[in-house]
Specification:
Shape: globular
Distance between the termini: 56 Å
Structural class: mainly alpha
Oligomer: single chain
Largest sheet: 2 strands, antiparallel
Number of strands: 4
Length: 375
Protein backbone atom coordinates (compact mmCIF):
# COMPACT_ATOMS: atom_id res chain seq x y z
CA UNK A 1 0.00 0.00 0.00
CA UNK A 2 2.88 2.36 0.78
CA UNK A 3 4.27 1.76 -2.70
CA UNK A 4 0.83 2.41 -4.18
CA UNK A 5 0.61 5.67 -2.23
CA UNK A 6 4.07 6.77 -3.39
CA UNK A 7 3.03 6.04 -6.98
CA UNK A 8 -0.15 8.08 -6.55
CA UNK A 9 0.69 11.19 -4.56
CA UNK A 10 -2.49 12.66 -5.97
CA UNK A 11 -4.08 11.10 -2.88
CA UNK A 12 -2.17 13.53 -0.66
CA UNK A 13 -2.42 16.56 -2.93
CA UNK A 14 -6.13 15.98 -3.51
CA UNK A 15 -6.83 15.98 0.22
CA UNK A 16 -4.78 19.13 0.78
CA UNK A 17 -6.41 20.95 -2.15
CA UNK A 18 -9.90 19.99 -0.98
CA UNK A 19 -9.23 21.19 2.57
CA UNK A 20 -7.81 24.49 1.34
CA UNK A 21 -10.70 25.20 -1.03
CA UNK A 22 -13.35 24.46 1.61
CA UNK A 23 -11.60 26.50 4.32
CA UNK A 24 -11.37 29.52 2.03
CA UNK A 25 -14.77 29.22 0.36
CA UNK A 26 -17.00 28.41 3.34
CA UNK A 27 -17.11 31.95 4.85
CA UNK A 28 -18.22 33.37 1.51
CA UNK A 29 -20.93 30.71 1.20
CA UNK A 30 -22.06 31.47 4.75
CA UNK A 31 -22.32 35.19 3.96
CA UNK A 32 -24.33 34.45 0.82
CA UNK A 33 -26.67 32.17 2.79
CA UNK A 34 -27.29 34.93 5.33
CA UNK A 35 -28.12 37.44 2.58
CA UNK A 36 -30.55 34.98 1.02
CA UNK A 37 -32.10 34.15 4.40
CA UNK A 38 -31.12 30.50 4.24
CA UNK A 39 -30.48 30.04 7.96
CA UNK A 40 -31.49 27.58 10.65
CA UNK A 41 -33.33 29.33 13.44
CA UNK A 42 -33.14 28.14 17.06
CA UNK A 43 -35.86 25.72 18.06
CA UNK A 44 -35.68 23.48 15.00
CA UNK A 45 -34.54 19.85 15.14
CA UNK A 46 -30.98 21.10 15.49
CA UNK A 47 -29.58 22.23 18.83
CA UNK A 48 -28.26 25.66 17.82
CA UNK A 49 -29.14 28.61 20.08
CA UNK A 50 -28.70 31.28 17.41
CA UNK A 51 -29.41 31.64 13.71
CA UNK A 52 -26.78 29.77 11.71
CA UNK A 53 -26.54 29.80 7.89
CA UNK A 54 -26.74 26.52 6.04
CA UNK A 55 -25.80 25.79 2.40
CA UNK A 56 -22.30 24.78 3.49
CA UNK A 57 -22.74 21.92 1.05
CA UNK A 58 -21.94 24.33 -1.79
CA UNK A 59 -18.44 24.85 -0.38
CA UNK A 60 -18.09 21.10 0.10
CA UNK A 61 -19.16 20.52 -3.50
CA UNK A 62 -16.51 22.81 -4.97
CA UNK A 63 -13.97 21.40 -2.51
CA UNK A 64 -14.66 17.94 -3.94
CA UNK A 65 -15.40 18.80 -7.56
CA UNK A 66 -12.34 20.95 -8.34
CA UNK A 67 -9.66 18.55 -6.97
CA UNK A 68 -11.50 15.65 -8.60
CA UNK A 69 -11.20 17.37 -11.99
CA UNK A 70 -7.54 18.07 -11.29
CA UNK A 71 -6.38 14.70 -9.96
CA UNK A 72 -8.77 12.04 -11.26
CA UNK A 73 -8.76 10.58 -14.77
CA UNK A 74 -11.92 11.79 -16.47
CA UNK A 75 -13.08 8.34 -17.50
CA UNK A 76 -16.67 7.21 -17.80
CA UNK A 77 -17.10 6.28 -14.13
CA UNK A 78 -15.60 9.54 -12.86
CA UNK A 79 -17.90 11.59 -15.11
CA UNK A 80 -20.93 9.67 -13.86
CA UNK A 81 -19.92 10.07 -10.23
CA UNK A 82 -19.28 13.82 -10.50
CA UNK A 83 -22.48 14.41 -12.47
CA UNK A 84 -24.45 12.48 -9.87
CA UNK A 85 -22.76 14.45 -7.08
CA UNK A 86 -23.80 17.70 -8.78
CA UNK A 87 -27.42 16.55 -9.02
CA UNK A 88 -27.42 15.45 -5.36
CA UNK A 89 -26.04 18.83 -4.30
CA UNK A 90 -28.60 20.74 -6.38
CA UNK A 91 -31.49 18.73 -4.93
CA UNK A 92 -30.19 19.35 -1.42
CA UNK A 93 -29.65 23.06 -2.09
CA UNK A 94 -33.21 23.45 -3.37
CA UNK A 95 -34.43 21.77 -0.19
CA UNK A 96 -32.27 24.14 1.87
CA UNK A 97 -33.73 27.15 0.04
CA UNK A 98 -37.43 26.45 0.00
CA UNK A 99 -38.00 22.95 1.33
CA UNK A 100 -39.14 19.92 -0.66
CA UNK A 101 -41.84 17.38 -0.03
CA UNK A 102 -40.44 14.00 0.98
CA UNK A 103 -41.40 12.46 -2.35
CA UNK A 104 -39.78 15.31 -4.29
CA UNK A 105 -36.54 14.87 -2.36
CA UNK A 106 -36.66 11.10 -2.79
CA UNK A 107 -37.21 11.49 -6.52
CA UNK A 108 -34.16 13.76 -6.74
CA UNK A 109 -32.09 11.29 -4.74
CA UNK A 110 -33.09 8.43 -7.01
CA UNK A 111 -32.22 10.52 -10.08
CA UNK A 112 -28.79 11.33 -8.62
CA UNK A 113 -28.14 7.70 -7.66
CA UNK A 114 -29.17 6.43 -11.10
CA UNK A 115 -26.51 8.52 -12.85
CA UNK A 116 -23.38 6.66 -11.63
CA UNK A 117 -25.22 3.35 -12.08
CA UNK A 118 -25.87 4.33 -15.69
CA UNK A 119 -22.16 5.10 -16.11
CA UNK A 120 -21.05 1.67 -14.92
CA UNK A 121 -20.77 2.12 -11.14
CA UNK A 122 -22.95 -0.71 -9.91
CA UNK A 123 -22.46 -3.95 -8.01
CA UNK A 124 -21.47 -6.52 -10.62
CA UNK A 125 -20.90 -9.40 -8.23
CA UNK A 126 -21.01 -10.38 -4.60
CA UNK A 127 -18.83 -12.86 -2.78
CA UNK A 128 -20.91 -14.69 -0.24
CA UNK A 129 -19.34 -16.80 2.51
CA UNK A 130 -19.39 -20.53 1.75
CA UNK A 131 -21.20 -20.23 -1.59
CA UNK A 132 -18.48 -18.12 -3.24
CA UNK A 133 -18.57 -15.51 -6.02
CA UNK A 134 -21.84 -14.83 -7.79
CA UNK A 135 -22.26 -12.45 -10.71
CA UNK A 136 -25.29 -10.19 -10.58
CA UNK A 137 -27.27 -9.39 -13.72
CA UNK A 138 -27.65 -5.72 -14.51
CA UNK A 139 -31.37 -5.73 -13.68
CA UNK A 140 -30.45 -6.78 -10.13
CA UNK A 141 -27.15 -4.95 -9.61
CA UNK A 142 -28.32 -1.53 -10.78
CA UNK A 143 -31.44 -1.30 -8.55
CA UNK A 144 -29.42 -2.59 -5.57
CA UNK A 145 -26.81 0.10 -6.19
CA UNK A 146 -29.44 2.86 -6.45
CA UNK A 147 -31.09 1.63 -3.26
CA UNK A 148 -27.73 1.60 -1.43
CA UNK A 149 -26.79 5.12 -2.55
CA UNK A 150 -30.20 6.59 -1.68
CA UNK A 151 -30.12 4.87 1.72
CA UNK A 152 -26.67 6.24 2.64
CA UNK A 153 -27.63 9.73 1.44
CA UNK A 154 -30.56 9.75 3.83
CA UNK A 155 -28.54 8.22 6.67
CA UNK A 156 -25.90 10.94 6.51
CA UNK A 157 -28.68 13.53 6.28
CA UNK A 158 -30.30 12.10 9.41
CA UNK A 159 -26.94 12.20 11.19
CA UNK A 160 -26.44 15.90 10.49
CA UNK A 161 -28.07 17.32 13.60
CA UNK A 162 -25.10 18.25 15.78
CA UNK A 163 -22.22 20.66 15.15
CA UNK A 164 -19.43 18.82 13.34
CA UNK A 165 -20.96 15.36 13.73
CA UNK A 166 -21.71 14.43 10.11
CA UNK A 167 -18.52 16.06 8.78
CA UNK A 168 -16.39 14.19 11.32
CA UNK A 169 -18.01 10.82 10.66
CA UNK A 170 -17.66 11.32 6.88
CA UNK A 171 -14.01 12.34 7.32
CA UNK A 172 -13.29 9.11 9.22
CA UNK A 173 -15.18 7.10 6.61
CA UNK A 174 -13.31 8.81 3.76
CA UNK A 175 -9.94 8.09 5.42
CA UNK A 176 -10.87 4.45 5.92
CA UNK A 177 -12.15 3.98 2.37
CA UNK A 178 -8.97 5.61 1.07
CA UNK A 179 -6.70 3.13 2.88
CA UNK A 180 -8.79 0.14 1.82
CA UNK A 181 -8.94 1.27 -1.82
CA UNK A 182 -5.16 1.79 -1.87
CA UNK A 183 -4.64 -1.70 -0.49
CA UNK A 184 -6.89 -3.06 -3.26
CA UNK A 185 -4.81 -1.15 -5.87
CA UNK A 186 -7.72 1.09 -6.83
CA UNK A 187 -6.11 4.55 -7.03
CA UNK A 188 -9.09 6.49 -8.41
CA UNK A 189 -11.47 5.64 -5.54
CA UNK A 190 -8.59 6.22 -3.11
CA UNK A 191 -7.99 9.72 -4.51
CA UNK A 192 -11.67 10.62 -4.32
CA UNK A 193 -11.93 9.25 -0.77
CA UNK A 194 -8.93 11.38 0.22
CA UNK A 195 -10.58 14.41 -1.37
CA UNK A 196 -13.71 13.75 0.72
CA UNK A 197 -11.49 13.48 3.81
CA UNK A 198 -9.81 16.82 3.04
CA UNK A 199 -13.10 18.56 2.28
CA UNK A 200 -14.66 17.37 5.55
CA UNK A 201 -11.61 18.37 7.60
CA UNK A 202 -11.64 21.80 5.97
CA UNK A 203 -15.35 22.18 6.68
CA UNK A 204 -14.84 21.27 10.33
CA UNK A 205 -12.77 24.45 10.63
CA UNK A 206 -16.09 26.31 10.44
CA UNK A 207 -18.58 23.63 11.50
CA UNK A 208 -17.26 22.22 14.77
CA UNK A 209 -18.94 23.49 17.92
CA UNK A 210 -19.88 26.30 18.02
CA UNK A 211 -20.69 26.03 14.33
CA UNK A 212 -20.62 29.15 12.18
CA UNK A 213 -22.28 27.33 9.28
CA UNK A 214 -24.18 24.09 8.68
CA UNK A 215 -23.71 21.86 5.66
CA UNK A 216 -27.49 21.59 5.16
CA UNK A 217 -29.15 18.96 3.01
CA UNK A 218 -26.91 20.00 0.14
CA UNK A 219 -23.81 18.91 2.03
CA UNK A 220 -25.29 15.85 3.75
CA UNK A 221 -26.72 14.48 0.50
CA UNK A 222 -23.46 15.21 -1.34
CA UNK A 223 -21.29 13.43 1.23
CA UNK A 224 -23.70 10.50 1.53
CA UNK A 225 -23.82 10.16 -2.25
CA UNK A 226 -20.05 10.23 -2.71
CA UNK A 227 -19.32 7.81 0.13
CA UNK A 228 -21.97 5.37 -1.06
CA UNK A 229 -20.76 5.53 -4.67
CA UNK A 230 -17.17 5.15 -3.47
CA UNK A 231 -18.03 2.03 -1.51
CA UNK A 232 -19.45 0.50 -4.69
CA UNK A 233 -16.69 1.68 -7.02
CA UNK A 234 -13.77 0.93 -4.73
CA UNK A 235 -14.92 -1.99 -2.60
CA UNK A 236 -18.11 -3.81 -3.55
CA UNK A 237 -17.07 -4.39 -7.18
CA UNK A 238 -14.20 -6.61 -6.05
CA UNK A 239 -14.43 -10.37 -5.52
CA UNK A 240 -13.10 -10.39 -1.95
CA UNK A 241 -15.32 -11.82 0.77
CA UNK A 242 -14.51 -9.07 3.29
CA UNK A 243 -15.43 -6.20 0.99
CA UNK A 244 -19.12 -6.71 1.74
CA UNK A 245 -18.24 -6.21 5.38
CA UNK A 246 -16.17 -3.03 4.99
CA UNK A 247 -18.79 -0.41 4.01
CA UNK A 248 -21.32 -1.82 6.47
CA UNK A 249 -18.87 -1.45 9.37
CA UNK A 250 -17.34 1.87 8.31
CA UNK A 251 -20.80 3.42 7.88
CA UNK A 252 -22.28 1.60 10.88
CA UNK A 253 -22.86 4.75 12.96
CA UNK A 254 -25.26 6.42 10.47
CA UNK A 255 -26.82 3.01 9.75
CA UNK A 256 -27.48 2.38 13.46
CA UNK A 257 -28.72 5.93 13.97
CA UNK A 258 -31.20 5.63 11.12
CA UNK A 259 -32.34 2.17 12.25
CA UNK A 260 -33.10 3.43 15.76
CA UNK A 261 -34.94 6.52 14.49
CA UNK A 262 -37.03 4.62 11.95
CA UNK A 263 -37.95 2.02 14.59
CA UNK A 264 -39.02 4.79 16.99
CA UNK A 265 -41.12 6.54 14.33
CA UNK A 266 -42.84 3.28 13.41
CA UNK A 267 -43.43 2.51 17.08
CA UNK A 268 -45.21 5.84 17.66
CA UNK A 269 -47.01 5.82 14.32
CA UNK A 270 -45.16 8.80 12.90
CA UNK A 271 -44.13 9.14 9.21
CA UNK A 272 -40.65 7.77 8.57
CA UNK A 273 -39.62 10.96 6.78
CA UNK A 274 -40.68 13.34 9.59
CA UNK A 275 -38.11 15.27 11.63
CA UNK A 276 -37.79 14.59 15.36
CA UNK A 277 -35.33 14.54 18.25
CA UNK A 278 -34.90 10.79 18.61
CA UNK A 279 -31.49 10.55 16.95
CA UNK A 280 -28.48 9.18 18.81
CA UNK A 281 -26.98 12.64 19.26
CA UNK A 282 -30.22 13.88 20.82
CA UNK A 283 -30.10 10.93 23.21
CA UNK A 284 -26.57 11.84 24.21
CA UNK A 285 -27.79 15.34 24.97
CA UNK A 286 -30.66 13.90 27.01
CA UNK A 287 -28.25 12.07 29.30
CA UNK A 288 -26.29 15.24 29.96
CA UNK A 289 -23.56 15.30 27.28
CA UNK A 290 -22.50 18.63 25.81
CA UNK A 291 -22.61 19.06 22.03
CA UNK A 292 -18.83 18.85 21.84
CA UNK A 293 -18.65 15.71 23.98
CA UNK A 294 -21.50 14.02 22.11
CA UNK A 295 -19.85 14.67 18.73
CA UNK A 296 -16.44 13.47 19.93
CA UNK A 297 -17.98 10.34 21.44
CA UNK A 298 -19.69 9.43 18.18
CA UNK A 299 -16.51 10.17 16.25
CA UNK A 300 -14.65 7.80 18.56
CA UNK A 301 -17.29 5.13 18.02
CA UNK A 302 -17.00 5.51 14.24
CA UNK A 303 -13.19 5.39 14.46
CA UNK A 304 -13.28 2.19 16.53
CA UNK A 305 -15.55 0.49 13.99
CA UNK A 306 -13.37 1.72 11.12
CA UNK A 307 -10.33 0.35 12.94
CA UNK A 308 -12.03 -3.05 13.08
CA UNK A 309 -12.59 -2.92 9.31
CA UNK A 310 -8.97 -1.91 8.69
CA UNK A 311 -7.66 -4.69 10.95
CA UNK A 312 -9.55 -7.29 8.94
CA UNK A 313 -8.13 -5.88 5.71
CA UNK A 314 -4.50 -5.43 6.73
CA UNK A 315 -3.94 -8.19 9.29
CA UNK A 316 -5.57 -10.72 6.95
CA UNK A 317 -6.16 -13.67 9.29
CA UNK A 318 -7.31 -15.89 6.40
CA UNK A 319 -4.76 -15.02 3.71
CA UNK A 320 -4.58 -17.31 0.66
CA UNK A 321 -7.00 -19.77 2.21
CA UNK A 322 -4.87 -20.46 5.30
CA UNK A 323 -5.70 -19.28 8.80
CA UNK A 324 -2.88 -17.46 10.61
CA UNK A 325 -3.10 -17.71 14.38
CA UNK A 326 -1.49 -14.38 15.37
CA UNK A 327 -3.47 -12.15 12.99
CA UNK A 328 -6.65 -14.10 13.72
CA UNK A 329 -6.29 -13.46 17.46
CA UNK A 330 -5.50 -9.78 16.87
CA UNK A 331 -8.53 -9.33 14.61
CA UNK A 332 -10.73 -11.15 17.12
CA UNK A 333 -9.54 -8.89 19.96
CA UNK A 334 -10.09 -5.73 17.90
CA UNK A 335 -13.48 -6.99 16.76
CA UNK A 336 -14.53 -7.79 20.33
CA UNK A 337 -13.42 -4.33 21.42
CA UNK A 338 -15.50 -2.72 18.64
CA UNK A 339 -18.47 -4.90 19.58
CA UNK A 340 -18.06 -4.02 23.27
CA UNK A 341 -17.90 -0.30 22.41
CA UNK A 342 -21.09 -0.59 20.36
CA UNK A 343 -22.89 -2.54 23.09
CA UNK A 344 -21.80 0.10 25.61
CA UNK A 345 -23.20 2.87 23.40
CA UNK A 346 -26.52 1.06 23.08
CA UNK A 347 -26.54 0.43 26.83
CA UNK A 348 -25.73 4.04 27.53
CA UNK A 349 -28.44 5.37 25.26
CA UNK A 350 -31.14 2.71 25.56
CA UNK A 351 -30.89 1.02 28.96
CA UNK A 352 -29.55 3.74 31.25
CA UNK A 353 -32.27 6.14 30.17
CA UNK A 354 -34.93 3.53 31.02
CA UNK A 355 -33.62 3.40 34.57
CA UNK A 356 -33.54 7.17 34.95
CA UNK A 357 -36.96 8.80 35.49
CA UNK A 358 -35.52 12.26 34.80
CA UNK A 359 -34.36 11.18 31.35
CA UNK A 360 -37.68 9.46 30.64
CA UNK A 361 -39.50 12.64 31.63
CA UNK A 362 -37.23 14.76 29.42
CA UNK A 363 -37.88 12.54 26.40
CA UNK A 364 -41.63 12.64 27.06
CA UNK A 365 -41.50 16.45 27.19
CA UNK A 366 -39.56 16.49 23.90
CA UNK A 367 -42.19 14.29 22.24
CA UNK A 368 -45.00 16.51 23.52
CA UNK A 369 -43.20 19.64 22.25
CA UNK A 370 -42.79 18.05 18.80
CA UNK A 371 -46.49 17.14 18.77
CA UNK A 372 -47.41 20.75 19.54
CA UNK A 373 -45.12 22.06 16.78
CA UNK A 374 -46.63 19.58 14.30
CA UNK A 375 -50.12 20.70 15.25
Amino acid sequence: MIQTLSDHLEVVWGAIAAAGIVILLTPAVGGMARMLGVVDQPGTRRLNRRAVPRLGGLALFFGIFVPALAFLPLDRETKGLLLGAAVATIVGAVDDFRGLQWWEKLGGQIAAAAIPAGFGIWVHRFTFPVVGVHALPEWVGVPLTILWIVAIMNMVNFLDGLDGLAAGVCAISGFTFCLIALSLHRPSPAILAAIVLGACVGFLRHNFYPARIFMGDSGAMLLGFVLAALSVQGLLKTAAVATLFFPLVVLAVPIIDTSFVVAKRLKYGRPVYSADSWHLHHRFMNIGYSQRRAALTMWAWCAILSGAALSLRFLRPHAHGDWRVGPAIAVAVIGLFALAASVYMVYLLEIVKLANPRIRRREQEAREAEARRSA
